[in-house]
Amino acid sequence: MRITSIEPQQRNPTRRNLYVDGVFALGISPETLLRFGLRKGDDVTQDILDSVSKTEELVNAKAAALRYLGVRPRTEREIRDKLRDKEFGDEEIAKTIRELMAAGLVNDHDFACMYIRDQMLKRPAGKMLLMKKLLLLGVEKSVIEQAIKETLDVEGLEQTALQLAREFVRKAKALRKSDSAYKLRNRTASFLGRRGFAWDTIQSALKTLFPSEPEQSNDHAE
Q: What's the domain count of the chain?
């Protein structure tokens, strides 16, 4: 078999159409074209064309992953799921992820640390809620625990919980002026629990905001 023509694609001039014996064989990127050193008039075998096609599939998978990463950082599982949705093969997906990880473009630990810092700035939460959100993004529990350990501290969480509680109490008093301190205290505790704070952190905030109310046992967990 012989390459009879290599022509720019009409819709995407950066890519090429490869013709063998006058018949369209496959679309190919300049990167793959250079890698194989293909030129018009070259003799090729089916094995060579299969290798070209396989390499082109990997190039396309990497390009799709990079476009996906261009929107925001992603976890390994997010990249994998995206490429599967685009019907890339398992081998191409695995190779793409390995190359992205080697280049430092995919790193679940770094992602988790960044995500936690971002969340604490935009929508502060306790460890449990952060853990839940990161698990849903595909980050392993051990990786999340390490990221939480590196980015959060007890004092900072207590200050965050207290700040959130103060804002909640302010709004609650404006909306429900008839609520007793006891009821408001319980509602505040429930709010902080939903935000993922541990009960000892919640207790610390309640003691500051409701010093005259008695402590109660609670099943809130971080």
A: 3
